Amino acid sequence: MEGSLFIIIVFGGGLLWKLSSTPIGQAIADRVRHGPADTPAPDPAVLEELDRLRHDVSELQERVDFAERMLAQKREAGQIGGGVP
Predict the structure, then answer these.
(1) Taking a C-beta distance cutoff of 8 angstroms, is the pair 17, 8 a contact?
(2) Contact 30, 20 (CB under 8 A)
């Protein structure tokens, strides 16, 4: 157990040291030191489009609900009107 832990530490440490000398390792280190880059402000046109799409989806949901209610009423009306001919 101790031998395998030693091997993991030695090779893992060597791998991390080697990674730190590469441009990718340096970029990761800069990201850790300085935090994430500033994100740009959202585009107002994109936000407006998103609001329009939300409105459209809401209207479609209302139409689907209405259609489901109409179909349910039609089915129930056919079942209730049974009886002996």
Answers:
(1) no
(2) no
pLDDT at residue 5 is higher than 60:
yes
Asked whether the beta carbons of 22 and 15 are under 8 A apart, the reply is: no
Q: CA 54, CA 2: separation in Å to the nearest integer?
A: 59
Predicted confidence band at 82 (pLDDT cuts at 50, 70, 90)? low
Amino acid, res. 28: I
**Which residues touch 28 (CB under 8 Å, ≥6 apart)?**
19
pTM of the model: 0.45
Angstrom distance (rounded) from CA 56 to CA 48: 12
The contacts of residue 19 (CB under 8 Å, 6+ apart) are 25, 28
**Residue 44 and residue 52: Cα distance in Å, rounded?**
12
**3/67: higher pLDDT:** 67
The token pair at 1 is: 């157990």
